[in-house]
Design a protein that fits this description.
Blueprint lengths: L1 E2 L16 E2 L15 H5 L5 E6 L5 E6 L7 E5 L2 E2 L23 E3 L1 H7 L6 E5 L7 E9 L4 E10 L7 E14 L9 E14 L2 E15 L12 E17 L5 E17 L7 E20 L3 E16 L5 E15 L3 E12 L4 E13 L3 E12 L3 H5 L5 E2 L7 E15 L2 E13 L2 E5 L7 E5 L3 E14 L3 E13 L6 E2 L6 E14 L2 E12 L10 E12 L6 E8 L18 E10 L1
């Protein structure tokens, strides 16, 4: 019996106690096209991935009805931010196969494990070094194609007591007419890793670069009358050193440097297009850990520094800094755990905030728990929200920092016997929430607007169940209601949200060498005037996988994206890409 984590698309098999199935460890399920981090978590029912184009063209993370600026990625305990636009929160120039299966963090769980995004984050941690890799070749309708490679090995002398692993990776993809006829995509990237393990010590060093160019007609609320293109270049260096296990007592240091270049061309006049060109620089250092203080007390602590800079002719040249300190003691009894502490943040413009954090968990029997939490977080507007001016959008230099206050009450079934389940009632009050809105149908441009306080009430039910040894089902349902004082024709991110969202994901090993993956999401959006005739979406996907057997490790996959050819778009006035069939030949080796 081995444990096979199914959530990471294209990832190697990872151990997870509640997903047990009798197969060979070389048999991961790879239901999608890509080994990108966005593809790794888009099957998680708790995450909504709002797309412009396909998953790897431009996609935004939404957790519990949040806007794209309130949720994002967390990498080795550091929340990644993008001060220029935040539209690239779901991007990493690293493949998902380098990491363990991602987890969705909200409430006190996020505060304990990372610097925070206001609504929640998708957390990635580096997996242990190993030997092997993959070669992946795929083709799809309309001439799309992709290639990916990952090669990993360990230096001589590596064993269970100490290991040094080296890896290199690369990828290329192209697609044509993703949604509109001239919205094409070309994406290329690569990088290297060094991972060490020695006793209780571990270190991970990664460097990745990527470049993609895509057609952006109709994106970001701009009229599809005009053609547009965008080029996005991303470079990331990450290093982390850890002593101990982050699920127990540990100490960790994580450093990160990232640079992106973004050029957007809008062809109102083909001879003289409207042009935006930006360079964004972010870097940070976080030191955190958990200490055991006697038999019943623990202390979670963290110190973090973040730098963000933008160089742009249209947005201006800006730098800002942020410092974070956290002290979060917890008392653990036989059945009761109480956590209460404070997070302090200081900003380079002189602002500061003291943010209380608290949680309680009471175990009911051996397998169930009741929990409650209260957390707060700060958010700085992006420089696009502050300073952008284009034919389709207008920023607002008067925007202030947002402050979110979140409460949650719920029940969970502890992972056991292949089952997980939870029910949560949550409330989020976001002060100085920012959205791009049009107050009337004939309004010329989307305007970045301070909505005041937006209050979100919601219920989230999620769970997974292993039915026998070959079938696993995951599902989640979310109901949301937002209170605000605005009556607008259309909104882009905060006020345009799914009131009801049901997502089901099925993975079935129906024969010794065959696996089937099926996903279905149904969502009903809030009814703004712009959504009156387009409020319901049905996003279906299917993939079939055959383990060829000879040569060992060869896998053949076929799949369908947008199974029902549904035109519903995550954003107003932007259609979803048409249904497309694809196939891939992969070789996984050890």
């Amino acid at each position: 019996m081995v444990a096979l984590a199914m959530g990471a698309v294209g990832a190697a098999a990872e151990l997870q106690s509640n997903d047990v199935i009798e197969v060979r460890a070389r048999r991961p399920m790879m239901p999608g096209r890509s080994d990108s981090v966005a593809a790794a978590f888009e099957r998680d029912p708790r995450v909504a991935l709002n797309r412009q184009g396909g998953t790897d063209v431009q996609a935004d993370i939404s957790i519990r009805g949040s806007s794209f600026s309130e949720a994002g990625l967390i990498l080795e305990g550091v929340a990644l931010r993008h001060p220029q636009t935040e539209h690239f929160h779901a991007e990493l120039p690293l493949p998902a196969s380098l990491f363990n299966e991602p987890s969705v963090l909200t409430g006190v769980a996020q505060v304990e494990q990372a610097t925070v995004h206001p609504a929640g984050g998708v957390s990635f941690s580096s997996r242990d070094p190993q030997r092997g890799g993959y070669i992946d070749l795929g083709v799809g309708e309309e001439g799309s194609a992709w290639q990916g490679v990952l090669l990993e090995g360990m230096l001589p002398g590596s064993d269970a007591n100490g290991a040094i692993g080296l890896g290199v990776f690369g990828h290329h993809a192209e697609a044509f007419g993703v949604d509109y006829g001239d919205n094409d995509l070309e994406r290329v990237g690569g990088g290297a890793t060094v991972k060490t393990r020695h006793g209780a010590w571990a270190s991970d060093w990664m460097v990745g670069v990527s470049r993609k160019e895509f057609g952006a007609r109709g994106y970001y609320g701009v009229s599809p009358t005009w053609a547009a293109t965008e080029t996005f270049e991303d470079s990331l260096v990450l290093g982390t050193i850890r002593q101990g296990d982050v699920d127990g007592v540990y100490r960790r240091v994580t450093g990160m440097w990232r640079s992106t270049r973004d050029e957007y061309l809008l062809f109102i006049d083909p001879a003289d297009p409207f042009r935006n060109k930006h360079r964004t620089r972010t870097s940070g250092l976080a030191v955190d850990g958990r200490e055991q203080l006697g038999e019943a007390w623990q202390l979670q602590w963290r110190g973090a520094y973040a730098f963000e800079g933008v160089d742009s002719k249209s947005l201006g040249d800006h730098d800002r800094e942020r410092g974070t300190l956290l002290a979060l003691p917890a008392w653990q009894g036989q059945r009761l755990k109480v956590t209460a502490g404070v997070m302090g943040e200081v900003f380079s413009d002189g602002d500061e905030a003291v943010l209380p954090q608290a949680g309680v968990e009471w175990r009911v029997g051996e397998a169930q728990a009741l929990f409650a939490s209260y957390t707060e977080a700060m958010h700085e507007p992006s420089y696009t929200e502050l300073n952008y001016e284009s034919p389709g959008s207008l920023g607002n230099a008067g925007l202030r920092k947002g402050r979110s206050r979140k409460s949650e009450l719920g029940w969970r079934l502890q992972p056991t016997q292949g089952r997980t389940a939870s029910v949560s009632v949550f409330h989020r009050a976001t002060g100085h929430a920012v959205d791009w809105v049009k107050v009337a149908e004939d309004t010329a441009r989307w305007a970045a607007t301070d909505l005041g306080t937006v209050t979100t009430w919601g219920v989230e039910c999620s769970g997974s169940r292993r039915l026998g040894e070959q079938l696993r089902v995951r599902a989640a349902y979310t109901w949301l209601e937002k209170d605000h004082e605005w009556d607008v024709y259309a909104a882009r991110y905060v006020l345009d949200y799914p009131q009801h969202r049901l997502s089901i994901d099925l993975d079935w090993a129906f024969a010794p060498d065959w696996r089937l993956s099926v996903g279905q999401t149904v969502r009903y959006h809030s009814e703004t005037m712009a959504r009156e005739t387009e409020a319901t979406g049905r996003d279906g996907r299917l993939a079939l996988q055959w383990y060829a057997g000879q040569p060992d490790g060869v896998v053949i996959r076929v799949g369908v994206d947008n199974l029902w050819n549904d035109s519903f778009g995550s954003y107003v006035d932007l259609p979803a890409p048409d249904r497309r069939v694809w196939g891939a030949l992969s070789w996984r080796f050890h």
